[in-house]
Amino acid sequence: MLPSAAMGRVLEELLGLLDLEELEVNIFRGRSPRNDGRERVFGGLVLGQALVAAGRTVEERVAHSLHAYFLRPGDPSIPILYNVDRIRDGRSFTTRRVVAIQHGRAIFNMSASFQIEEPGLEHQAEPPDVPDPEDLPGRPELAEQFAHELPARVVDWLKQERPIEERYAGPAYFFKPEKQPPKREIWFRASGPLPDALALHQCFLAYASDFSLLDTSTLPHAVSFLDGTLLSASLDHAMWFHRPFRADEWLLYAQDSPSASGARGFNRGSIFTRDGRLIASVAQEGLLRITEQQR
User: Fold this and answer.
1) Which of 24, 130, 245, 254 has the fewest CB atoms below 10 angstroms from its CB?
2) Active site residue 217
3) Domains in the chain, please, with CATH?
4) Is 224 designated active site?
């Protein structure tokens, strides 16, 4: 573990949340952040913790995919139990199923697959052409830039210290929504240095991948989760890890939403390193329900 001074308080707290307590063979306990103001557990945290639990039962193999369903809202006031089912240990692939439980009921389930390292065919999609992250404002700079136009609560929200640093390569739509095509690119990285273990970087990436993907579905409709007119929640989440990477170096999250219908939005994401390597792909469907206020 890196020294706290090098890491930062909120990043250190997140890594603590990803360090699950082992209660029994195949059973782990996770917790939620204290006093973060959420009424339900952030889905990316459950995703990251579930991948940690699965990985704790696997040796000398690297996660290459996960497929998860969010079944019920998580209660941030109590711990989450993760029960790992060791489905299969093959010669090349290992499969695990994880069920997250609160109040005696499943709130989440996930299947994850791990693979030995082996060579093979190589090709990938090309990354989009966007400005460098150093040339784009972060959230604190956006708060200063638009402070005269935004409610105080939004300014305070933008200024909050976070474990993830973000730079939007386009309009920061979430506080001034305007109709635009359902695609965008976001640079992001951990807000401080992380330990070297690839498994930890994958779990951090799983956590980060849920932060903004569903919002891509709202771009053509000029609505935002901040304006009180939209009820949104992740329904499922899939990830494929293609190549090794570091989550404390700048990564580009290219997102698009091919469809929204039936009070659901479908979204895709491709995550590239700064030098253009495609390191992960993401797909997610989420609930998008317009409230009575909007109607």
Assistant:
1) 24
2) no
3) 4-117+137-290 (2.40.160.210)
4) no
User: Among residues 210, 215, 248, 256, which one is catalytic?
Assistant: 210
Annotated catalytic residue within 234, 255, 257, 270 = 234
- CA-CA distance, 87 to 246, in Å (whole number)? 29
Check 191, 202, 257, 284 and give the catalytic one: 284
Identity of the residue numbered 88: R
Q: Determine the pLDDT at residue 2.
A: 46
Give every CB contact of residue 293 below 8 A, 6+ residues apart in sequence: 228, 229
Per-residue pLDDT tens over the stretch 126-164: 999 999 999 998 877 877 777 776 777 777 767 778 899
Q: How confident is the prediction for the chain on average, in pLDDT? A: 90
Kindly tell me if the per-residue pLDDT of 1 is higher than 50: no
State the residue for tokens 């952030």.
42
